[in-house]
Structures are given as structure tokens and as C-alpha cells.
Amino acid sequence: MKPIPDKAEVALEYPDKFYLGTFERTARFEAHMDATGISLTLERLGDVDNRKSIHLHIHYELFAEILGDLAKTGMAIPAHELQHRESLANAARTLHLALARPMGRKK
Who has the most CB within 10 Å: 14, 34, 83, 87? Predict the structure, then answer.
């Protein structure tokens, strides 16, 4: 796990309940790929009243659709938000290179 560099908000809505959680710089996260998809864990430590975590697993085909939709809306990030644009572009480039590498070869 490593520290969250910015902020994440999670909302979970059921017909009779609504949960909202915020994870900020004092929280931590872990993300990885496994045999069937991507896993994301957000975790905030603390006492019983403040501690919370979210675990999300998304299969690869759904994640590919999500990435495609994000690509279509990437222009929504204002041009003056250069840092965010560069961070996302670098991460996307790194993911692309990792997936393009032949299996069994490490960097």
C-alpha cells in the first residue's frame, strides 16, 4: 500500500441506504492486475469510527470499456490543468508499454 497522492470519493447507493466515503492524503491505496481483472483497494486507518476501506475488482473487458470512455472524455480536463494531463498521459503510456511487452519478459 502507498499514500493517496490526491483524493478519492466513493458513493454506494442502495434503495434504502446511501454511503459516502472520502479518502485523502492520509489514506492509502493499492492497485494491481490479477488473472481476471484489476483490483483497487482504498483504505483509511484510524479508530473504529473513522476507519474504512473499499475493495473493487473489475474484469478486464469492463475495464477496457472504462478506459475507452475515459479517452473519449479526456478533453474535459481544462488545458490549464497541465499537471493532471501530464500525470494521466504518463500513467497511460506506462500501462500501454507494460501491456505491449511480450509475456515472460521483464523490464
Answer: 87
Residue 79 belongs to a domain: yes
Under the banding of pLDDT at 50, 70 and 90, the label for residue 1 is: very high
At 10-57, the pLDDT tens digits run 999 999 999 999 999 999 999 999 999 999 999 999 898 889 999 999
Residue 19: strand pairing partners: 12
The grid coordinates listed for 78 are 481544462
C-alpha cell at 22: 472520502
Averaged pLDDT, 80-97 = 91
Three-class SS state of 32: strand
For residue 106 the three cell numbers come to 521483464
Count the neighbouring beta carbons within 10 Å of the beta carbon of residue 42: 21
The answer to whether the beta carbons of residues 29 and 40 sit under 8 Å apart is yes
What is the pTM for the complete model shown?
0.81
Count of structural domains, the chain: 1
CA 23 to chain centre: 12
